[in-house]
Design brief:
heterodimer, A: 290 residues, alpha+beta, four-stranded antiparallel beta sheet, 13 strands, 38% helix, 20% strand, elongated, B: 150 residues, mainly beta, six-stranded antiparallel beta sheet, five-stranded mixed beta sheet, 1 helix, 15 strands, globular
Chain lengths: 290, 150
């Protein structure tokens, strides 16, 4: 798309101003604002759409200086909020503001992101795949992106985002997690997702990890700390400490984390202490882990 | 704040949420030693007195009942929040730490609580503590460590 074209040089200041002014006028006519309305409509939708969908779509775009002016479709929380007051009669808006609300509702319901300029309007297609799951702890039906074996979000041109339980991960994590890629990955959450797709036992076996030391996990009854040598070919001069989460997951399992520690560490307690910047014999006195 | 709290009493009092599968009615233990909540660790200051201290540019705030967010997890949700009865508990940031892991120093005359949606709540007995992050060895080269964000 030739974004350098003259017609769209002028910024969409006017229409943005119209929308903001319309909202301000509607706000002035809303006299009672029960917290439940904001929590169930505005906050819940905003969490699902901004933090979930819009954040994922952004990863498909090159960095835009100054940010993007607005998200169009993912601004449904604004439309829903004012529409609630209008449809229940809890507020009465001016006719020009009702018209603006109708237009925004039509846009939210019919297009993807859009940008308008003086003579040109750019509208984008909506995703063809959008898979979600309930957000844990969400009290008002908040949802987050998730698809176990496929993109959680995909456009018709094939552009796709892989998301596991709300965490955006690279494609290889879902399609082809390998020992080598896992070793290179910097983000511990991404690595965990990839390893968990293989399974910790299988991963340790495939990676040829040799256990160097093990001990009871202080403050985490019934769990063990295990220290492994990383394979020589990784050449990253580190060992891997396998730790067990202090809290149960929803399904009753305990998540396991592998953390890279320096190779000079030979005891699992020293390794765990090092990750928190304390000595191993101090770490051994950890009273509680959650 | 009462020194024996259940998770449900604590979340009601503070307005903070935890995941619904955690046991809400269990009493939250209060620990006067070292404890960890996921990628955070609470260490009695005496153990780190040589490494971590407040300096002239450190700032402190009174910890409110509604909580201070100490750290958020990588996926965007799930903050670790620190709560206590207001005025009796302070949280100092911008502290000097030769290890570069401390988020701050907690000074509390009452029981303070760390609350996290996934890990639930844990009580911290009155005293002075360093609350710090977890690190692992980086891959970028040499000995560059990186901070753990679970």
């Amino acid at each position: 798309m030739p974004l350098g074209c003259d017609r769209i040089h002028s910024p969409p200041v006017r229409i943005a101003g119209d929308i903001v002014n319309s909202r301000t006028r509607m706000d002035q006519r809303i006299h009672r604002r029960p917290a439940i309305v904001k929590a169930t409509l505005w906050d819940s939708l905003r969490t699902s759409l901004f933090d979930g969908v819009a954040a994922s779509i952004r990863t498909l775009l090159p960095p835009v200086s100054g940010g993007l002016p607005w998200y169009g479709q993912q601004e449904a929380h604004r439309v829903a909020f004012y529409e609630f007051y209008r449809s229940t009669g809890l507020a009465t808006f001016r006719s020009n503001d009702e018209n603006m609300l109708d237009i925004l509702a039509a846009l939210v319901g019919s297009t993807g992101w859009w940008w308008t300029f003086d003579e040109v309007c750019v509208m984008s297609e909506r995703p063809v795949i959008l898979d979600t799951e309930p957000t844990p702890g969400g009290t008002h039906n908040e949802r987050r992106l998730h698809s176990a074996d496929a993109p959680a979000l995909q456009f018709a041109d094939g552009a796709a985002v892989y998301v596991q339980h709300g965490a955006i991960v690279p494609e290889w994590v879902v399609l082809d997690p390998t020992v080598e890629r896992i070793a290179q990955e910097r983000n511990v959450e991404v690595r965990r997702t990839a390893i968990e797709r293989i399974g910790w036992d299988a991963y340790i076996d495939m990676a040829g990890l040799k256990m160097v030391d093990r001990s009871d996990d202080p403050g985490n009854p019934g769990c063990e700390l295990q220290l492994f040598d990383a394979p020589q070919q990784w050449r990253n001069n580190s060992r891997i400490l396998l730790t067990v989460n202090g809290s149960l997951e929803r399904d009753g399992h305990r998540r396991r984390y592998g953390l890279h520690v320096p190779r000079w560490i030979s005891s699992s307690l020293d390794a765990a202490g090092w990750t928190y910047g304390i000595r191993g014999h101090d770490y051994a006195r950890l009273a509680r882990r959650t | 704040m009462n020194s024996t709290m259940t998770l449900s009493a604590l979340t009601t009092l503070t307005g903070l949420d935890v995941f619904d599968y955690l046991d809400q009615e269990v009493s939250v233990p209060v620990i006067d030693g070292m404890q960890a909540q996921g990628d955070l660790i609470v260490v009695p200051h005496i153990l780190l007195a040589d490494s971590v201290r407040t300096v002239s540019w450190s700032r402190y705030v009174h910890v409110p009942l509604s909580g201070i967010e100490l750290l958020r997890s990588a996926a965007g949700g799930n903050p670790h929040s620190l709560v206590a009865d207001e005025g009796l508990c302070t949280w100092s940031t911008g502290v000097q730490d030769t290890r570069r892991l401390a988020l701050g120093i907690l000074d509390t005359e009452v029981t303070a609580y760390l609350i996290h949606p996934e890990h639930g709540a844990t009580g911290i007995a009155p005293g002075r503590y360093v609350i710090g992050r977890q690190r692992e060895r980086g891959f970028g080269g040499f000995e560059s460590p990186q901070l753990v964000a679970d």
